[in-house]
Amino acid sequence: MSGATDDHIADDERLWRRIHPTHYQDTGGGPRVVSGAFRTTDLCLDRAEILEGRGLGVAFTAANGVGVGELSAAQLRAKGLEPVPEPEDGNPAHAVVEGTISYRQAKELSSECVFHPVTAG
Q1: Averaged pLDDT for residues 35-62
Q2: Which of 21, 79, 87, 116 has the fewest Cβ atoms within 10 angstroms?
Q3: Contacts of 57 (CB under 8 A, 6+ apart)
Q4: Closest by CA position to 65, among listed 118, 104, 120
């Protein structure tokens, strides 16, 4: 565990991105997250360790989605993207990558993320 703090996101910290149903494909070869999941301005993420420390899991981040794509802060930084803590009322784990993510960056992130589906129950 990275020991998440309110003011810094460590390289090994796991970050979750909600995957909307339109950003997910099951092509028979397993689930695939498409680049549109990361192609946005001001990419919102949740810090997994903070949520898990409060007894919350993937379903919290994935609300109205099919699951989450998990990346480390180091993976984002390797692409020149900086995750910044930005807690909100009702979500102390909220973080953001400010600015516009390029198509290339989004494509790389979508192929590198680990998909965690929401399970019923």
Answers
A1: 93
A2: 21
A3: 51
A4: 118
- Looking at the structure of the chain, the number of domains it has is 1
**Residue 9, domain member (yes or no):** no
Domain range holding 103? 14-117
Asked whether residue 1 is domain-assigned, the answer is no
β pairing state of 24-26 and 94-100: unpaired
Residue owning tokens 């589906």: 117
**Is pLDDT at 33 greater than 60 in this prediction?**
yes
CA separation for the pair 100, 121 (Å, rounded)? 36
pTM: 0.89
Residue 8 lies in a domain: no
Q: 96 is written with which tokens?
A: 């953001």
Q: Which residue has the tokens 């993976």?
A: 75
Q: Answer whether residue 85 is part of any domain.
A: yes
Quick one: pLDDT band at residue 44, thresholds 50, 70, 90?
A: very high
